[in-house]
Amino acid sequence: MTNSVIVSPHYLSSKAGQVVIEKGGNAIDAAIAVNIVQGVAAPETCGIGGDLFALIWINGEEKPYCLDSSGYAGSNIDTIDFSSFKSLPLNHEATVTVPGAVKGWESIHNKFGKLSFKDLFQEAIKICNEGFEVSVELNHTLNHHKDSLKKQNSSENFYVDGKPVEVGKIVRREKLGKTLSSIANNGSSVFYEGDIAKAISKATKNTLTEEDINSFDSKWVSPLKIDIYGKTGWVTPPHTQSYLTLATLKAYELITNLGGELDPHLLVECYRSLAADRDQITYDYGDKIDSFVGLNLDYIKSKVSEIDTYQAKSFQNPEKLGGGTAYMAVKDSEGNAVSLIQSNFHGIGSTIGVSDYGFFLHNRGAGFNLIDNHPNKIYPHRKPLHTLSPTIWSKDGKLDMVIGTRGGRYQPQLLSQFILPILLKSSTPEEAMNKSRWVIDYFGENTESNLIFEKTSDENTINYLKDKGHKITMKDSLQSSFGPISIIYRDDNESWRGVADSRVATAKAIY
């Protein structure tokens, strides 16, 4: 027996997981409870109006289970005229795909849970009714979207005299509490059928039909994997971009021939060479996922061959084809673990509230494009490119690490630079968590290397990258949007530890 570990972006979420573990629940039960509370206390990250992906490690098995509980575009998408748009507006009803989180909770609970489904909601419902302190991040979101949110019923108590509730003040979400109570007592059917489904359809101006919502189901799929530096990395398959984390790390292993000090130029170029293809090869493959090449070793080698070890360059795609997120990691004393990510996409999502039910709908459909004949063009019942990128790591067939982050398109960038020094054993997870991070806004084909760097005292690295031709913009502090990364790992003494990211003040690891 080993210790349980819970890491999430909010202390109330982590505490909810701890309560479930203490009641006799397992990692799967705890992860669900963590997720439900996260959507209550931090709706700027996730909620019942969004999607969910999970990697689940069951002790004694040698590969994780993978759940895709993400939704598809509505049947009436093809009735909308997009001719005046270059891309999909974030607050357009067309960006609302069927929310998958609630069905996802039920699916993983039915397969692996120990406690009753109802038990997993109790902390969240209590917090809805008793209230919670408004965080800096939630206050910022309420300010940013004030004009859209303050007039909606789902924004109950978020605004006082037209102004967002101040940081540190208590806010209650009784309407959401009633909705969660109904789901707890009746299961996911109460969300995907009847009055709530009608309200969701109405909120999207019938872009999502009731039948679209009624017929949604989660899907168990095969995870992708690749061996890197003696460990096996596992990720969710496309339509997610999760493969990019593993592909980047494998490319780095190949180009450096298994050794040497960490070279930031090569890591950046490994990512950029592979990311130049992302939008061309990441889409909803349906039953043709075997044709995905992103973790094919020959493909990765071909991208490595394009890299100049001395200078940053632009990368061209070889073939032309026609955020708000919360990551949580949980491991129980039995050795089971969950790497779960759930999202509204952009902050609080589409800002479209659902009647009096107390929640907002995500805008994950903004991951589609409007390019004719492209496999990621918005289309009825198609799923969009997803940025969510959870990981699980094993070694010799045993669980080794559970790692993930929020960050939209930045997720593989953040994860690869965090994980690499751990794989190289040049940093402990605690040390890696405190290292300055970079992100790249534009990484498609024929783009330059423009890095946005957090504040750092490591001038040698900055000068080295500049000498290699990377353009760098410096931030004057650590950035909350460059995380929070959460990790659970097995240390050298075979004990399990969790590390939360100080970039977000509410993040908490319990073990």
Architecture overview:
The chain is an alpha+beta fold and about 500 residues long. The chain has two domains: about 5-220 and about 325-365, no CATH class; about 225-320 and about 395-490, 4-Layer Sandwich (Glutamine Phosphoribosylpyrophosphate, subunit 1, domain 1), CATH 3.60.20. Helices cover about 30% and strands about 20% of the residues. It is built from 17 helices and 22 strands. The chain has helices at about 10-20, 25-40, 100-110, 120-130, 135-145, 145-150, 175-185, 190, 195-205, 210-215, 245-255, 265-275, 280, 295-305, 410-425, 430-435, 460-465; strands at about 5-10, 50-55, 65-70, 130-135, 160, 165, 170, 220, 225-230, 230-235, 325-330, 335-345, 350-355, 360, 390-395, 400-405, 440, 450-455, 470-475, 485-490, 495-500, 510. A seven-stranded antiparallel β-sheet has the order 8-3-2-12-11-1-22, covered by helices on one side. Helix 1 runs antiparallel to helix 2 (about 25-40). The chain is globular. The two termini are about 15 Å apart. About 55% of the residues are buried. Mean pLDDT is about 95; it is low at about 320.
Quickly count the helices: 17
- Counted up, domains total 2
Shape: globular
Question: Which strand order do you get reading across the main beta sheet?
Answer: 8-3-2-12-11-1-22
Residue fraction in strands: 15-25%
Q: What composes the largest sheet?
A: 7 strands, antiparallel
State the total count of DSSP E strands.
22
Low-confidence stretches: 318-322
* Percent range of helical residues: 25-40%
Rg (C-alpha, Å): 22 Å
| Structure classification | alpha+beta
Q: End-to-end span in angstroms?
A: 14 Å
* Overall pLDDT confidence: 93
